Amino acid sequence: KCETKVDIAFLVDSSGSIGRRNWNIVQHVLIDTIKEITVSADGNHVAMIHFSTRPEIVFGFHTLYGSETVELYSRKINRRRFQKGLTYIDRALELAYREIFKSSAGMRTSDEVRKIAVIITDGVQTSGSYDVISASQPLKDRGVEIYACGIGSDVDLFELYQTASNPSNVFSTNTFYSMESDFPRMIREILCQSERQTSCVHIPVDTTMDKPLFAQENSIKRGLRVY
């Protein structure tokens, strides 16, 4: 069991490229993941935003506590409909900064509580006047550790590397189906890292591969250093 308390928010892509079937998978994965997290008033707190063209808060850190927490979170997640639309990761990050990661919304200010944001996306930030990398900086300045999980071959890993707090905070998987077993375990391992630890935790993409997806050809072509 991990001793460090966390305030963890999931920023979940619900844009058109996800598709209704994959959105249902994401919902189930998030429910299973929350079951792995000890949520209580004095323990871990969880929040969720889903986004496409517009981001929406599903629940905040201060929404639910008690013995029925997991069941109530599950209901809220299952009731959230697939949005369609475009992929504005920057707007989700901005909303997380304004309405999730602040003390009046339930974020704990103690240094003993880690603040974590996990982006889940299958695509690339939609072009606009404000880029996702700039949008991530206020959260970083507030002490929030940003992680990203890219799904499929259309993800811009270079963008995620720059958006995350550290390149080792970026994970990659080939399909939504592979998330079902890997994502809850990945989150559990992230939560068990010490606050300053930066060692990489990889989602296994293919057991026949020596390296995870992001460490292969695409990363090399972009001149990235793989941690």
Automatic annotation (TrEMBL):
Pfam families: VWA
InterPro entries linked: ECM_Assembly_Org, VWF_A, vWFA_dom_sf
PROSITE patterns xrefs: VWFA (PS50234)
Domain VWFA: 7-190
Name of this protein: VWFA domain-containing protein
Organism for this UniProt entry: Exaiptasia diaphana (Tropical sea anemone)
Organism taxonomic ancestry: Eukaryota, Metazoa, Cnidaria, Anthozoa, Hexacorallia
